[in-house]
Design a protein that fits this description.
By secondary structure, the protein is of the alpha/beta class. The protein has two domains: about 80 residues, 434 Repressor (Amino-terminal Domain); about 190 residues, Endonuclease, Chain A, CATH 3.30.870. Helices cover about 50% and strands about 15% of the residues. Strands 1-7-6-5-2-3-4 form a seven-stranded mixed sheet. Strand 6 and strand 7 form a beta hairpin. The longest helix is centred in the N-terminal third of the chain and has 19 residues. About 30% of the residues are buried.
């Protein structure tokens, strides 16, 4: 969890404690407030100590139970402030994958240039429908989220239209391991590799692959995107981090450039793709 996120959550907890202690009817103990809310006392303690993230309805109930319903808007504003940076998968996927894909569609539509590093799966901008189905299914199982696989696939494929339109530039880097990761059956992966091979040389897409045996200036780590040098989006198991402060965005651009120094393009990239395809069973 990011330091900025934890600091913001802790500050929200301090504010919740202030409201409990400043209740118009007199100071409330944690156990009394928990009783009013129908919660366990441990939940009250975790929220006040920044060890659990409050939901919108949690904040509304807290403000009303402490006799200060007008404080809800302030609390909600604080929550939106740090959730804008840390977008938990649990909350994002509450209605399935399609809304997340539509958010990305809007972001890509407004972007001029995207730098992407992928260390585990093929970039969503280049996925085939069958490959995407397996990716969405795997993450839905992990996050125990609603399965809207076909809607999510359609939304992801809609985003791919932008790679054929002028005015956009996609600088995509992938680790060679991506070409060999069996997130799907061999025949699906074979079709996906054919798709990648066909992208090499496109005007709007620069596809680079970092070979497994290439010397690297920095260890390959989790996937991320830099959008127009104004926003970095970093993927982790619990959340996406949307980071827009200039120093942080600059850090991710430096990471991308160091990884890019180890990448191969053009015919060399196609040879790596072809070798991965030949290694598939059948």
């Amino acid at each position: 969890m990011s330091t900025d996120f934890q600091q913001a959550r802790s500050a929200l907890g301090v504010r919740l404690r202030e409201l409990r202690e400043a209740s118009p009817g007199g100071r409330l103990t944690g156990s009394v407030l928990a009783g009013r809310l129908g919660w366990t006392q441990s939940k009250v303690s975790k929220l006040e100590n920044g060890r659990q993230t409050a939901g919108v309805e949690d904040l509304r109930a807290w403000a009303e139970a402490t006799g200060q319903p007008e404080a809800f808007e302030e609390l909600h504003g604080r929550l939106k402030g740090f959730e804008a940076r840390t977008r938990s998968w649990r909350r994002q996927l509450a209605s399935g994958h399609r809304p997340v894909q539509e958010t990305w569609n809007a972001l890509v539509a407004q972007a001029r240039e995207i730098h992407e590093w992928e260390s585990s799966t093929v970039s969503g901008l280049l996925q085939t429908a069958d490959y995407a189905r397996h990716v969405f299914t795997a993450y839905a199982d992990l996050q125990k989220s609603p399965r809207d696989t076909e809607d999510a696939v359609r939304a992801r494929l809609q985003r791919q239209e932008w790679i054929y339109q002028p005015g956009h530039r996609f600088r995509l880097l992938m680790w060679e391991a991506v070409l060999r990761t069996r997130i799907c059956p061999p025949d699906v992966l074979a079709a996906q590799l054919d798709r990648l091979s066909g992208v090499v040389g496109m005007d709007t897409v620069n596809l680079g692959i970092v070979p497994l045996d290439a010397p690297v200036r920095i260890p390959p780590a989790n996937s991320f995107f830099v959008v127009d040098e104004r926003l970095a989006v970093v993927e982790d198991w619990h959340a996406e981090l949307w980071l827009d402060d200039a120093p942080t965005v600059g850090t991710y651009r430096r990471v991308w450039r160091r990884l890019e120094a180890s990448a191969v393009y053009g015919a060399d990239a196609q040879r790596l793709i072809a070798a991965a395809r030949r290694g598939l069973p059948g």
